[in-house]
Write a structure and sequence with these properties.
The complex is a heterodimer of chains A (660) and B (193).
Chain A lengths: L1 H8 L4 H6 L3 E4 L20 E4 L1 E7 L18 E7 L2 E6 L2 E6 L7 E7 L4 E7 L2 E6 L24 E6 L7 E7 L6 E7 L2 E10 L30 E6 L7 E4 L17 H16 L4 E4 L2 E4 H4 L3 H13 L8 H18 L15 E5 L4 E6 L2 E6 L7 E6 L7 E6 L5 E6 L20 E7 L2 E8 L15 E5 L6 E5 L5 E5 L7 E8 L12 E7 L2 E6 L3 E7 L7 H8 L5 E2 L14 H13 L4 H16 L2 H21 L3 H16 L3
Parallel strand pairs in A: 1-2, 26-30
Antiparallel strand pairs in A: 2-29, 3-32, 4-5, 4-33, 5-6, 6-7, 8-9, 9-10, 10-11, 12-13, 13-14, 14-15, 16-17, 18-19, 19-20, 20-21, 22-23, 23-24, 24-25, 26-27, 27-28, 28-29, 30-31, 31-32
Chain B lengths: L1 H17 L3 H8 L7 H25 L7 H27 L17 H9 L2 H27 L8 H27 L8
The chains are: A alpha+beta (660), B mainly alpha (193).
Chain lengths: 660, 193
């Protein structure tokens, strides 16, 4: 079969052919990680796959690759969006539309040349939005670049296409912005069905006001209309998308200083606390500043404590050396003294100047903004006027990059794109809490840090690697995510327990080149209608699927496949809802069996009752399922995992209601 | 089997090379070089600029200057990041046969010899305060360099130059803000009350 493909399909199937013999597939957790030591190559790098199956590997279309220059930066594949059976893949030179009706054999439907990185793409019904940020993007999609420092031919902002006929995108209009659009997020407002909104994030410098009127990079005290310290909101009237325009520039950073929950990492705090405890034991003075305990002798001049002690002696009108009672008195008072010493912020405190990316979750009215040195929580119930309601910072985070909510909205994950994606940040020497995901619980608008998740295997210095884009895999009852790590490949992990995220599947290739770093790897890995689809920067489009393992059962995979989208932008998170199906209660049963959340004999009994009910029809099936749901309600009280048993009961009841 | 695969692969790549992609073709036809002297000046100057950040960042990482754990952690990341970026910049120049320039003048924001000596003498809380103050100045200089580049005719049309410059701008703006917070949080920074 492979040879047949090789000889008949030619270019498009080459990668698949060349690599067929390199695949390492293992069922059990590999003892030595198979991702270590993979042979380098462009289309023929060795691969390691665990608990996934590679369905297809499709090299870039000829218009979007330079065969004589592997890793040509001009042809970087970027983010990906979906509509129907099409995947729309951004590229620094335009957009590629892939027909993925047959996931095993994606077909190029349209390659649309229109340079201007980084071509972040989104779809809303029949509209396609594309981000332009670089200086060479043109309003006419020309490939000649824009060499003038000020030019009205330059496009930095959002391009809007109508894609009713997806093979022939109709370029409707542009909305230009001061910093261009590095990323953008489509926001639907349930109360405003006539419009859709776009949040624009632009991290590049502000352009000249001669090119776009009103653009200013002055600090806010000099120019209250500065293009810094804000995001931009575009309103797109669905009846007349060509009239899209900027409607607001929310200053979501104003008044942002250290958030109350600002914390050094748990590791830093623990290390400092240990050092402080040891110092206290030998009589040193310590105090807590911004959540971190300091040994005062280390951070203040040595004379400080002596002078304080002298003043205690003086206060009791004594003389001579301080006594142990004086030390005790100072010890009791020192925190208050230090609190007064901590200097107020000098000058205006403004927070970040922009966001890198924003993920909205309209069903719960929230957005997660990854903005400079902060992770923000925004209230987006009024889509045109997002409002900041919480913020977190983290001493291990370099550059807050993107956000993902879990389906319940009880957790939020932020990524740190340390190094901007061009650098190797997964080497043995790069700390596991740097360039990682930070997981927070989310309750009553408070984000609480719980742990980091980083690709749990080192990559070579020839592989750009850091946390990047991903999305939830709709397995009911668990929080599972697929994520691209550039040349670190695709990592699928379970963060149901946010304190202990664990990898459950992966797909990785060797580096592009064994001697130097050439940009490549998974920009985004998103679940879409049954598959994980990955935009490979240099190698095209990869489609993989889950295979059953100790970590994921066939029933869970079947349940995940029930969730279908008409179109999908990963940064516009949709509530995952499972239609009634036998796969859903069986997925819960598998989870209860795996974690011993329900007695094994009950799990077995419920399984056979489900099988029996499935063999019935109409009212008899409904009655059997209703009765089973009632029994499960009873089971819940005594079960180790009561919540999951109730979810199971709910799924069985939903199935009963679905019977006619 | 393997041989035939390899052969097909080679042929297909050759076919691809002949069918030059439209975007590449158009750029070549326009007759413009994909990078300018302003790009070279920026990429080269940033090596010198980064090298100083790596030097003083090393003092913070190195325990002899008594930097606080926060300043050490920040500096450790700066040293790793900018060392990698220097290697990246050197490769960019090498692959274009551009020689390193001799930067007689200090790049914007770079510490003067006096500032360097002052920082090297400082210890503990005084070091933290000087380091953060001077590294903010240094980072602000990098932002100025990016602004100068983007204000130059024909600059940053090369995607890699633009991406790198925009990353420097974003990363260092973020670090400046972070360092300002750290500076504000210093317990009265080495000054007795």
């Amino acid at each position: 079969m492979k040879r047949f493909l090789c000889t008949t399909i030619g270019v498009l199937s080459l990668a698949a052919c060349a690599r067929a013999s390199n695949v390492v597939t293992t069922k059990a957790a590999p003892t030595r990680d198979a991702r270590i030591g993979l042979r380098a190559g462009w289309m023929d790098a060795a691969e390691a796959v665990w608990n996934l199956r590679v369905v297809s590997r499709t090299p870039p279309s000829p218009q979007f690759m330079n065969a004589s220059e592997p890793g040509d930066f001009q042809f970087i594949n970027s983010d990906i969006s979906f509509t129907g059976h099409y995947a729309i893949q951004g590229n620094f030179s335009g957009v590629q539309v892939w027909d993925i009706a047959n996931a095993a054999r994606p077909r190029l439907h349209r390659a649309y040349v229109c340079p201007g990185s980084q071509a972040d793409v989104s779809v809303y019904r029949n509209l396609l939005f594309v981000s332009g940020e670089a200086l060479d993007g043109r309003t006419d999609c020309g490939t000649q670049g824009v060499s003038d420092t000020v030019s009205h031919d330059r496009l930095r902002g959002i391009r809007i296409f109508e894609i009713t006929d997806i093979a022939n995108p109709k370029y409707l209009t542009n909305v230009q912005t001061c910093r261009g659009s590095h990323t953008h997020t489509v926001v639907s407002d349930p109360d405003d069905t006539a419009n859709v909104y776009i949040y624009v994030s632009g991290s590049a410098p502000v352009r000249s006001p001669n090119e776009l009127a009103g653009c200013s990079a002055a600090p806010p005290e000099q120019d209250p209309n500065t293009a810094l310290f804000r995001i931009e909101v575009i309103q797109v009237p669905l009846a007349a998308p060509e009239r899209a325009k900027l409607v607001s520039t929310p200053r979501i950073f104003s008044g942002l200083t250290e958030p109350a929950s600002h914390g050094e990492s748990q590791e830093d705090i623990a290390a400092a606390a240990r050092a402080a405890a040891a110092a206290r034991a030998r009589g040193a003075f310590t105090a807590t500043v911004h959540g971190m305990e300091y040994v005062l002798d280390d951070v203040l001049p040595p004379s400080f404590i002596n002078r304080m002690l002298d003043s205690v002696v003086k206060a009791r009108q004594g003389t001579g050396a301080p006594t142990s009672a004086d030390s005790a008195a100072l010890r009791a008072a020192i925190q208050g003294i230090v609190d007064k010493l901590v200097a107020p912020p000098p000058g205006p405190r403004r927070g970040p100047t922009q966001c890198h990316d924003i993920t909205v979750y309209p069903a719960i009215g929230l957005a997660g903004g990854a903005c400079g040195g902060y992770g923000l929580l925004l209230d987006i119930r009024d889509a045109a006027n997002p409002r900041r309601i919480a913020a977190v910072a983290d001493s291990n985070f370099s550059y807050w990059h993107s956000a993902t909510f879990n389906n319940d909205g009880t957790k939020i994950l932020f990524t740190d794109e340390w190094g901007g994606g061009l650098q190797p940040r997964c080497r043995m020497t790069d700390k596991p809490q740097w360039g990682a995901n930070a997981l927070f619980t989310l309750r009553d608008s408070t984000m609480t840090f719980t742990s980091y998740y980083k690709l749990p295997v080192p990559q070579t210095p020839q592989e750009n690697c850091v946390a990047h884009n991903g999305s939830l895999i709709p397995i009911p009852g668990r929080d599972i995510m697929a994520q691209g790590w550039y040349q670190g490949g695709i990592s699928v992990f379970d963060w149901t327990d946010p304190a202990r995220p664990v990898e459950i599947a992966y797909f990785d290739r060797g580096p592009m080149d064994s001697t130097k770093l050439l940009g490549a790897g998974s920009w985004s890995a998103y679940w879409y209608n049954g598959y994980i689809i990955s935009s490979e920067i240099a190698r095209g489009l990869d489609i993989v699927e889950l295979v059953p393992s100790a970590h994921i059962s066939q029933n869970e995979i079947d349940a995940a496949r029930l969730v279908r989208f008409a179109f999908l932008n990963a940064q516009d998170q949709q509530k995952l809802v499972w239609p009634p199906s036998f796969a859903v209660p069986r997925a819960y049963l598998d989870q209860l069996a795996r974690t011993s959340g329900l007695a094994a004999d009950r799990v077995a009994a419920v399984r056979s009752e489900l099988t029996r009910a499935e063999g019935l029809s109409g009212a008899t099936r409904r009655d059997a399922l209703t009765q089973l749901a009632g029994q499960l309600d009873g089971d819940a009280a005594g079960a180790p995992d009561q919540r999951k048993v109730r979810m199971l009961a709910g799924a069985v009841r939903a199935l009963a209601s679905a019977q006619r | 089997m393997l041989l035939s695969r390899a052969l097909v692969f080679t042929i297909a790549i050759a076919a691809c090379s002949r069918a030059t992609s439209p975007a590449t073709q158009a750029r070549t036809d326009s007759g413009q070089p994909r990078y300018t002297q302003a790009d070279v000046h920026f990429m080269d100057g940033m090596i010198t600029h980064h090298a100083q950040a790596v030097l003083i960042g090393g003092w913070a990482v190195d325990i002899t200057h008594g930097a606080s754990p926060q300043v050490r952690a920040l500096s450790e990341r700066i040293v790793v990041a900018q060392t990698d970026e220097i290697a990246f910049l050197e490769r960019w120049l090498r692959e274009r046969n551009e020689a390193r320039m001799d930067h007689q003048m200090l790049m914007p924001g770079m510490l003067t010899p006096e500032q360097l000596a002052q920082l090297d003498r400082a210890r503990g809380a005084e070091f933290d305060r000087s380091f953060l103050t001077l590294m903010i100045q240094h980072h602000q200089g990098a932002i100025i360099m990016v602004d100068q580049l983007l204000g130059a005719q024909g600059a940053a049309q090369d995607g890699l130059v633009f991406r790198f410059a925009a990353d420097v701008h974003a990363d260092q703006t973020t670090e400046i803000e972070r360092m300002q917070r750290m500076l504000a949080a210093l317990p009265s920074g080495g000054k007795t009350p």
